[in-house]
Specification:
globular; 2% strand; mainly alpha; 17 helices; 2 domains
Length: 365
């Protein structure tokens, strides 16, 4: 007797059916039913690749610049449009540079490194120059009195008022010089490290901590904005800071480029102290064997200058010290954890690309 379902009919039906997909059994299914495995689309594969390659400092920089844009969008006032434009451009620069590098779109090794460095440092450290207009656009809060009262309740005195008795042309020139040296201090430590050093681990450790310090500190400006003791306690000082070359340089720099509401935490404390602590912790390696005492000396004087020059309350400085110490201690551990994650994911790009290595490789090609 002939079959109800002839073999030819069965084959015909199968030939008309949807092509079979690769299958695997889903161990979480109670019925153990076969589940189709779909190959990612080209776009999906590209997104997965970028996410796999992202390093911790990439996420920090993108999240930080996204916050700046959100702060500009949620703010108000006549400066808002300019703030939105600058924050949008910064996010485009950092996001675009990271995507191009992590997706390996830019093949030129030196170009890749320079693109990455510009994207990271121009939009994180350089974002300070957005703050002058962004902070008053984002918030109308001023917490000077709260910070002043915290100093009195936690420490029993306000250091800027106590230091008033030591104001002379000589002491003012001394501390004004160190306060103004902040930018030179950053340049002489950051540029040689990221542009000339060949030790990938050392540069990655240093750079991750530096990016972390600046992202966290500058977010603090939005949480607790204020003018500082020089403005809030002006009526309590018996001795005005006398004019002089360095004092006038500081005042001009603050008047023309200062953020004005950037007090909590003190980045003049956190930035230089992080570099000094990093140098101290790596003093067994050159050049830190020779430079750490100088770095520490300068950082301590810069910290003292923030108080003597009446820019910061003591609580600003204490939190800045804690921030620098935390990143100096944790950046290496965070780097190890993130590198282990990236290795498991099969990442191919380095955590932090090195310019010196890229130049050397280009010469060998």
């Amino acid at each position: 007797m002939s079959s109800r379902w002839p073999l030819g009919r069965l084959r015909e039906d199968r030939s008309d059916a949807t092509p079979e997909l690769p299958m695997h059994y889903d161990p979480t299914s109670s019925l153990r039913e076969p589940v189709p495995v779909l190959s990612p689309t080209p776009t999906g594969a590209w997104v997965q690749r970028v996410l796999r390659e992202l390093a911790l400092q990439d996420v920090l920089a993108i999240a930080y610049n996204s916050f700046l844009l959100a702060a500009a969008l949620s703010g108000s006032g006549p400066l808002q449009a300019g703030c939105i434009a600058r924050a949008s451009f910064a996010l485009f620069v950092v996001g675009g540079s990271i995507l191009l590098v992590r997706a390996e779109v830019v093949r030129h090794r030196v170009g890749t490194v320079l693109l990455y460095l510009v994207g990271m440092f121009a939009t994180v450290l350089g974002s300070y120059f957005q703050m002058r207009e962004l902070l008053p656009t984002a918030t109308t809060r001023r917490v000077d009195e709260m910070l002043y009262q915290l100093d009195l309740s936690l420490f029993g005195f306000e250091p800027t008022l106590w230091m008033d008795q030591f104001v002379t042309p000589t002491t003012t020139a001394w501390f004004a010089f160190f306060y103004f040296s902040y930018f030179a201090y950053l340049v002489v430590h950051i540029f040689p490290m990221v542009l000339a050093c060949r030790r990938r681990r050392l540069v990655a450790d240093f750079s991750l901590g530096l990016v972390g310090v600046y992202c966290v500190a500058q977010l603090g400006y939005f949480a607790l904005p204020g003018f500082g003791p020089y403005h809030h306690l002006a009526h309590l000082y018996a001795h005005p800071l006398p004019h002089g070359f360095w004092q006038d340089m500081v005042q001009e720099a603050v008047a023309t480029s200062g953020a004005l509401l950037d007090i909590f935490p003190s980045l003049h404390t956190a930035g230089p102290l992080y570099i000094a602590l990093f140098s101290l912790f790596h003093r067994h390696e050159k050049p830190f064997t020779y430079t750490w005492p100088v770095a520490l000396f300068f950082s301590l004087n810069i910290i003292g200058a923030t108080l003597f020059m009446r820019w910061h309350y003591l609580i600003d400085v204490v939190v800045g010290i804690a921030l620098a110490l935390a990143w100096a201690l944790l950046s290496g551990k965070l780097l190890d954890l993130d590198e282990a994650r990236r290795r498991r994911a099969g990442a191919r790009t380095p955590f932090w690309p090195l310019l010196r290595n890229a130049i050397d490789e280009g010469k060998r090609l």
